[in-house]
Amino acid sequence: MSENVLKSLGTFLMQKDTPKVKEEMTSNLEELFQNPGCLSYVAELKKAIFHIERLCPKEITTPFKGNCLEVSESGKYFIFGSIEGRIAVVDKDNKEIIQDISLEGGSIYSIVLFKGDKYFASAGKDGIIRKFDFNTCEIVQSFVGHEKEINCLSLSVEEDEIFSASDDCTVRAWDQSGYSRILYTHDKAVLCLDRSKDGSILVSGGADKKVKFFDLVQGEIQSVLNEFTSSIWAVKLSGNLKYFAAGDSNSLLKVWDYQTMTVIKTLTGHTKRISHLEFNLTESFLISSSNDATLRIWSMYEDKSELILTGHTDWIKSFKISQDQKYIYSIAENFKIMIWYFPSFDNSCRKKQHNSPILFMCYSKPQNFLYTADTKEIKVWDMRTKVVTKTFSLTHDLSSLCMNSDGQCLIAAYTNYEIHFWNIDDTHSQVKVRHPSVIKIMAASQDHSILVVGDANFRVTVYNKKTFACLQVFRRHNSVVNALCFDKPDAGENKILVSGGADNLIFIYRIRHKKSVKFAGHTAPVTAIGVSRNNELLISGDEIGSFKIWNIKKEICIKTLNSHNDKITGIYFNENSKYFWIGSMDCSLSLWNSTSFAEVTHLCTKGPISMFCLTSGERDIITAENDELNFLPTILGGNKFFIYGPGREHYSFMKYIMHICEGNEMPYDPEMDKWIIVPFEFNALHFYAYFNLPLHLKQALDRNSPFYFSKSDYSPLQIAIQRNFRDCINVIIKYIRLNVQQDPYSVGFLEDSIIKLNELGFRGLDEFYNSIFYKTYDKLLPKFCDERIELPLVIQARSLGPQTKDFFSKDQITNVGTALTFIQSALKVDVVLGSRNSIEFLESLTNSPNDEIFRTQFVRELVLYKWKYVKWFLIPQACVYFTYMLVMSYYLIFQDGENSPVTVMILFVLNIMLSSYELFQMFLTGTMYLQDVWNYIDMARIILCFLYVSLIWENYNESTCKQVLVSVTFASMLRGISYFRLFDDTRYMINLLSEVFSDMISFLILLTYSTYSFSLIYFIMVNNISEPQPFSHFVSQAYLLNLGDFDTEGYGLFEWLIFFFASVINPLIMLNLLISIMSDTYSRVKTEQELADMKELTEMVIEGEYLLFCRRNNGKKTYMQICQVEEVTNPAGTPEEKIAKIKMRMKNIQEIINNKHEETKVELKDSMGGINSKLDEMTTLIEQISLTQD
C-alpha cells in the first residue's frame, strides 16, 4: 500500500469539512478501496464513515435565532432574518457572517430575493416591506400599507410585483413604485402564502382555518377549502400544479390532487405546528418542517414511511431546497442553519388491497408470486411490480392455506373440512380430501411426498400428497396445533416434522420411524416454530413474546429470550445461516445473530405483524399488518448504503458515530448499539473497537449489546486485535470469560481470532483457557458407568455439550460403579492431525509470550490427545535411529572401528534413511527447520557420517578416518539425547540439560577469562625457572588446574603465592559458583517442570503433524469433551494446592487493581479531554461575541 493511502487511513477522520479536504479524502478513499493489500474491514469502515459524513448535516452557528431563510441564486450565500430583528448574509462555504443589519421594526418573518440576487426584500412585525441592495445591504425602498405584521412575502413571475400576507387579514400586491392593492381578504390573520410556478395562482392560509385560491389572471378567488380545524400555517403548490399541500397548527398535513381538489394523502407524524412546505422539482417528494424541530420527507408516489431529519433542537421556521435538488437548507430558533444532504428512500412501501385482516400469506419462489388471503378471497401479487394480478373469491371460509412444495399451486383448507388444490391458472380449485375436523395449520414437505395438517381435535395427520392416503396420525398434543414445520431435506428427504400447540408443548416426529420426542418449557401456547438450515437448531415462539432455541440432536433448550412482549408470529433463518428473523404482534421485526444469539437490530412497523416472509434471494421482507402488506427491503445482502435501527432517529445515530470518529468526548448511549450500517453490517461496537474506546465497549457488553461479525467477517474483537488495542481486547475477553457458562456460544466469536490472541499473549489468557473448559451440569448425562471401562474418555464433538451416546453404549451405563463427571470446552479448535489450522494453533501456543497457558487443563488435554496419535509417527524414526546407534556401537566395540564393508554399508543405508527424513522435514517446515538446534546437530552428524563412509571407501589415511569417526560418534551420541523427549520420565531431564547450558554461558565467559589470565601469568613465571614451553602448554596447565591437576615442582615463595590465588579463584570459587548456578537452574526448572514439559511435548506434536502433509486442507473444528472419574475433593488440600490457590487469588487481586487503575486513568484522561473541549468552546464563543460587538 502506498504511503499516501496509509496516511489517509490515519488522518481521514480528523480532517475538517472543507471542499479541498473533501476532494482529497474522496481520491484517497478511491485509491484505498482499489488497493487489494488493504484489510477489507478498514476499507469498509472508511467507506461507511465517508457515507455517514456525507449524510450528516453540516451546521452553521448564528448569533441570533433564525426566523426565515433564502438562498442566493449562485448558492453561495444564505440570507436570513431573525427574531431579534436582524438580517444577516452568510458565506455558506466559509460558514461566516459577512453582513449584519439591525432593524428597529422587530422580528423579520419573511425574505425574498429577486432580480438575479441584485435586491432582496424583508417584512415582519412592523408591517413594513423594505427593499435592500444585496451587495451593500442598504435600504433602497420601503413599502408601507399594512396595518399589522406581515407574515409572508412572494414574488410574481416577472418579479415586478411583491405579494404579501398580513395579520390585518389582507393579501396585497405591490408594484415597483410602492403602490399596493388588496387582492382579497381572510376572516382572520393571513399566515402563509404561495404562488404557482406559472404565476397564475396565488394560495393562502389563515387563522380562519381556510385555504383560498386566487386566480391572478382573472383577478378573483377561484376556490376556498374548509377542511382544517385550526389555523393554517403552511401552503404549497407543486411546480406543475399536480399537487397542493397545506398544514395547520395541530400538525395535520394534507395533500390534494390540484385538478380535482380531492384529498389523496393525510400525513401524520409531526407533533406540533407545520411551519413550511416544499415540493421537489419532480413532484415526487413533499418536504415539511415543524415546530417539533424535525423535517420530514414524504413520498408522493407510494405509501412509504416518511424520512425524518433530526438535528435542530428548537422550532424550525423555514427551509429551502438547493437548485440541484441535492441539499436542504433549514433554519431554526436554536441559533443554527443546517445543510442536509437530500436523503433517498429505500424500496419499502405499503399496499392495501384487502377489506379485512389478512389471515394467510404464502410465497412462490419459482413464480415469484405472493398469495394473500382473508376469509373470503385470495389475491395473487406479482412481486416484480408489487401489484395484484388476480383475485379468487371463495365459496367457504378459509381455515388454513399453504404453498405446495413445487411452488406451482396453493393448498387450501376450508371450514367445511375440505382440502383443495388451487392452480393459479385455474378459476376453480380441486377437492382432494375431506378431513375429519377443522384444519388449523398445514405444511407440505419439500421432498414433495407428504402433506401434514394440524386440526382442532389436537391431531397431527400425515397424508400422502399424491394419493391423499392417510399415512400416520399423531395424537400427542392436548390442545389445538398452532404451528408445523419440516427440517431441511437431507439427501432429498424430509426426515423430521415439528409441531407446536396451545398446550405449550413441542413435538419432534421422526417420520420414517414414526417416533416422537417432547420438548417442554414454554409457559404459553406455542405460536411459531422454525428449523435452521443445517437442521441443528429449532426456534419456537409463544403467545407472550418469548422464544426458545433448542438443540435438536441433544433435545435440550439452549437459550430463552424475552425481547418481544406480544405473540411471536414468524421465524425465518437466512440463507447464509448467519442470522434469523423473529416477527411479533408487538409491531416489530427483530434480527438475531445465529452464533451468539444476540439481537442485531429490530425494525418497528406501524401495525402488528400477523405473519411475514422473504422473497427469492431475500430481496424483500413482506409483513402482513391488519389489512395491509408492508414491503420492506432486505437489510442484508444488498449493495446500497442504509442505516437501520429500532426507531427513526437515523441522524442521531450518525451524529453519535461522527463524534466518535472525530475523537470528541461522547457519553455512551446504549440506544445507539442496536443500529446497523448496511451493506457493511457494522454497528457501534465495531467503531468502539476501531477507535479504542474500551469503556464504551465494556458498557455495551454489560448491556448485552449486539456483538457480531461484519459482512467481511470481522467482529469488534478482531478489529481490536488487528489494531493491537489491548484494553479493548481485555474488555471483550474478560466479558466472554465471566459469562462463558451462561452463554457458551459467545466464545464462537474467538474461533478465528484465537491464534492471534495466543501470539499476543495478553494478561489473563491462561484464565480465559481455564474458563472455557468447565464441568457440565446436565441432568441427562449418566452418573455412573461400568467399572471395567477405562477412563478418561476424550472425544471431539461438532456440537456444544456432551451426549451420552458419544461416550457409552446403553449396557455400559449403570446405577453403581465408577462415578463420572463430564468436562466440555466452549471453544472449537481444529484437531485434525496435519491440518493447516491445527498446526497454526499449536505454533501460536509455543510462540505465546504467556507460558502460563500450558498449565491450563484445556491446552494440556488438547496436546495430550494429539500426542496419543502423533507419537506413532515419530516412534518409527526413533527406532531407525536406535538401530543406527546399535550398528554404530557394534562397529566400534566388536570391530574396533576397522573397515568392515557390510557394517559400513548398513551405516550408509541407515544414514540415507535418516537424512531423507530430515530433508523431507526441511521441505515441509521451511525456515522453521532452522529454528531447532537439534536439527543443526543432525545435519552435522549426517554430513560427518557420509564423509567417514567416503573416506573408508577411498582408503584414506587411517588417522584422519579415526578422527572423523570420533566426530561422528560424538555427534550421534549428542543427537540421540533428543529422542529421550519421547518419554515422559526423561523429557524433563532434557529440558533441564538445555536450561543448564543456557544458564552456564555467562559463567563460561568468566571461567575462560580467568583461565586465560592465569595462563599468561604461568607463561611468564614458570619460563623463568625451567625450560621454556609454548603458550599452549600453559593454557592446558591452567585448565587442568581448574580440575585439580597441578605440578608445583621448583616453586618459590612468589610462585606459591600465585598458585594459591589461582587455586582459590578457579577450582574453588568458580566451580562452586557453577554448582550454585546449576542448583538455581534445577530449582527453577523443577518449579516450571509441568509448563516446560508440556511446551516440549507441543513442539514434538507440531513436528509430527508436519509429516502429515496430505491432510493440510482437511481441517475441522470441534469441541473437546471429556468423561472422567469424579474426584472426591479434599477441602483441606495439600500445602502445594493451598499455595497455588493463594497465588491465584493474589493474581486475581492484582488484576483487579490493575484494571481499576487503568479505568481510573482513562476516566481522568476523558475528563481532562472534556474540560479542554469545553474551554475551546468557551474561547470560540467569546471570540464570536467579540466579533459581533465589533
Automatic annotation (TrEMBL):
Keywords annotated in UniProt: Membrane, Repeat, Transmembrane, Transmembrane helix, WD repeat
The record places domain Ion transport at 879-1089
Q: Where are the transmembrane segments?
A: 872-893, 905-924, 936-953, 1003-1021, 1056-1077
Q: Where are the WD repeats?
A: 143-175, 183-224, 225-266, 267-308, 309-340, 519-560, 561-602
Q: How does it sit in the membrane?
A: Multi-pass membrane protein
Q: Which InterPro entries match?
A: Ion_trans_dom, WD40/YVTN_repeat-like_dom_sf, WD40_repeat_dom_sf, WD40_rpt, WD_LIS1/nudF_dynein_reg
Principal localization? membrane
Locations listed in the record = Membrane
Identification of the protein by name:
Ion transport domain-containing protein
Species name: Stentor coeruleus
